Amino acid sequence: MSKTEYVSPEGLRLDGRRPMEMRQLRAEIGTVAKANGSAVFEMGNTKVIAAVYGPREVQNRSQLINDHALVRCEYSMANFSTGDRMRKPKGDRRSTEISLVIRQTMEACILTHLMPRSQIDIFVQVLQADGGTRSACINAATLALADAGIPMRDIVTSCSAGYLNSTPLLDLNYIEDSAGGPDVTVGILPKLDKVTLLQMDAKLPVDIFENVMGLAIEGCKAVANYIREVLLENTKQLEFRRGL
Amino acid sequence: MRGLQLPLNQTQRIRLQRAFEKLQSLSSKANSDASVTVADTIPVNYEDAFLKGHGTTDLNGELVATVCGVVERINKLVYVRGLRARYKPEVGDIVVGRVIEVAQKRWRLEINFNQDAVLMLSSMNMPDGIQRRRTALDELNMRGIFEENDVVCAEVRNFQHDGSLQLQARSQKYGKLEKGQLLIIDPYLVKKSKLHFHHLEQFGIDLILGRNGFVWVGEHVETRDKLCRIANAVRVLSTLGFSMDADLIVETVELSSSLKIDIHDMLGSEFHVLVAEQEAERRSLMGKRRR
Lengths: 244, 291
Fold this sequence. Notes:
heterodimer; A: 244 residues; alpha+beta; 4-stranded antiparallel sheet; 4 helices; B: 4-stranded mixed sheet; 7 helices; 29% strand; flat
């Protein structure tokens, strides 16, 4: 039985990266003109678009909260996002779980008490899936919320890491993810240095887990630097174009 | 770039880039240094007493921004002026809204705010003009005054206890707006000025720049395509992200008619580039005049 080599003896992965190397990041703000805030975030071949509507009037009166804002999130994958065309992109168990995860992560950092009796909708859609979709969605949602001018206590960034061929690997792509090894997804608030999301599938001994989680947190910090650069550049652009 | 998904050919791209670079060089250096993003530390002298304003929060004893924007300091107040955000209402602002719901003795209007605004029946002049108590019959005839999806111009009266706005439309210049176009732009692009109602005589058009980012271009007489020209000028300025007032809109329209550009072509790439170049010229002239 041949075992696929995910890390070659020279230390190169299947796509030529080193074990601690992330994929290329690319972000664009303001892609959905009608939304209050929107962003496209790419991590390698994984491409995700996020749109934020709000704060606006609560549509369902029974869900209205008197002292803070209601945050709703919907995650879906486009039919064409994976290798085979998907039949039911919304409403399946995985999408519902990821919607809940993203909602809880973003709700922790939005200052909801500043916008009572209103509703914030976050829609995230995966356009191309190549591993790490959960992380890309959280990063895109953060950018979209910042674009919409919604006050947050800190940005949330996320990255995944795994353990294959006895090596911790940062930012798994689809092939490495489907290898059956552990996949740890971490979401942090970089300035506060706090973990807000931690998920893992498969099993890992605790000491190796600490290594892998530490690697994922390093990845999150790198994403945070990139996101802050993009937001700062965008703010400067808007300010000088606005004029006096 | 928001809304700027225009097909630009190579020369147009270069010209647009140059115009933006010129604008950037003209912008105040102080402002660009004071730009912050979420969770950036705001440089403050902690020994002086200062007041924490909007857009800031205290994090482990440091002052940190909660929105992306520019840090403003007025006397002892330090706050972050956010750029793209929902409308921040102030009492006395002129707003334009669309009726969402006709409820008991009030109308609910959508005005680009966290919650819908309320216009009470008692805050509205009766059609017959008499000042009287509103009866049950008036309440039943509310739809005769405003229906769903009507566009209304009103003034902010006060804030209610739950944070929503109460509007009033008691003067002759407020009320239903007919025969025109409603344009939705970002509130930060509308400059605060003394006048929000503009009657453009050379076009015969009414222009209302609502502080909430709802702009109304309406007919005074039968002048439909002049109206379309002005509406398109507002759209182009919003796409390019330039803050606007009535003079700038009129200048843009005059640019389009002097170059004999078709109304429909005003939304095309070439006109966007021309407007960006003209704005760069205008701001540099303004800067020279000040010096």
